[in-house]
Design brief:
single chain, 169 residues, mainly alpha, 8 helices, 0% strand
Amino acid sequence: MRTDTSPIDGADWRERATRYALLPLRVFLGITFIYAGIDKLTDSAFMKDSGAGSVGDMMRTVRDSSAIPALVDLALKSPSGFGYAIAFGELAVGIGTLIGLFARLAAFGGALISLSLWLTVSWASDPYYYGNDLAYLMAWIPLVLAGAPVLSLDAGLHARRRRRRGGYR
């Protein structure tokens, strides 16, 4: 039995756990969005304007049931261009989130992608919680607010700037 344990040890553990609490969410969302972007880019059927499995057919299918049909109409002007924009956006968001570079901006981009997919593709899900885009939108919000304070390029750059400022005083 240990007798050298103090309340400070428990506080230190809680502080460390709090500090790293968003890391699993960052890793999950980063990997998921990288995978989603690569999956779209490597699926030859998805990037087509029409045909089975194409982004164009998917958008035409959800157009009348979406919350904002005008948003779908805008994307339907160039379905393959929209498909590439979503795929590269997901890649950028995923990479930025995973490595923690411009993490708040990446999370905001992820939230926007999730919001647009919820308002278009997932809107008709009944009950609403069957549509996963709303859950992804809610998952991005803590990262928009907190960024990537640990194990990230943002944190490393922030520490470097702080050391430089401290060195010139």
